[in-house]
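Case study 2.
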Amino acid sequence: MKYNLLNAQRKFLEIPHNYSLDVAVYQGGYGSGKTFAGALLGILLSIKFQGISGLVGAQTYTLVRDTTLKTYFEHLENIGFVENLDYRWISTEQKLVFRNGSEILFRHFDEPNKLKSLNLGFVEIEEMSDIPYDTFKMLLARMRQKKRKSWKNFTYRIFGHTNPEIYRVWISKTFVENPAPNYRLITAPTTQNKYLPDGFCDELKKLYDKDYYEVFVLGKSKEMNSNLVVKDFTQDNIREIKYQQNLDVHISCDFNVDPMAWVLAHKSEDKVFYFDEIVLENTTTQKTCEEFCRRYPSHKGRIIINGDASGDNRSCTSEYTNYVIIKRTLAKFGYDAEIKIKSYNPPIKNRIAAFNAKVKNAEGDIGLYISPKCEKLLYNIYNLRYIEGTSKIDVPSYSQIKQTKELKFLSHPFDAASYLVDFYWAITL
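Prediction:
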């Protein structure tokens, strides 16, 4: 197998200095070959340095399993390696073992203290911007596997790949503002990947809003003009939306108890219209469902339930899931509801990206409209923010809510609305 690497991938693999440790980040847009290059480097190091111990990880194991590990297996197949001959996958230990004794562990970094006993020759980090700086520093301290005499021209290596940062956090400070001489940042826009299908980037431009396109396709590190979660929302997104009793109604649910927040919408193939919301304090799923039936007693179209995937789990207070309660309650009023939810909730940044792309995509097309009746949802649009300098949503604390009751309505209506958008127009980051 012969790979024709992109220029950025070659720079990522090759070391331009003589320091004993190389720290490199491959920063690029979707389809820029980040994970491809990282997995390839991990395999090459394992083959070249007999008996080396490597660690591959991300903040969540789901990301490691579904993205990085999958790419490792694809490389092994392309190279011509045969399982149980050239390498073994030990699922109980989540470990690749090569015939030459090299090993690669696949782990999540959510509990970094569990990794402190490792002595490693290399570390690969998926979505490096998602891990805390303290985790990165801990991994640096793990680069102390004893070198073997057969390891010629060996360099300890920590390498990661990530999308560009939306907000300046530790990667920008460490690799751009004041980098050490052995720290390298390699950038690669999606548009430079000549192996992508024709029109790939043009389709992404239609899908994403302008800021996300510049970051996740063109590979630009940029700070948004505001720390608001919802970008580019204007009066053009607000319109009087009349409920249509013959059209399908989508009820998208967030099952927080105080408040519980549901949004009601009609949708077309490429647009969503939020015409009402049900936001109740200190309530139950059944009471919220009864409120819907009180407001819309003569609905003729279908009722489709979207929302939080965790609502399909049983709670400690009921033998039924929230969605079973909804179906049973609606059935008492003569409605047959259809449940359409994901098997698990995606990362919140995916929902945010999908929602913003509907607000306005990079070509200026609007695909999301909200009625003035949706006061709590609009309150979220105008007030839900990131914590300054991070990509974490600034959810108010209990003490803040005690002082300002209105704060209790932040996040839940937005969650309900974004579950619906993510189900029908998902974006994978």
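Residues 61-79 form the longest helix (19 residues).
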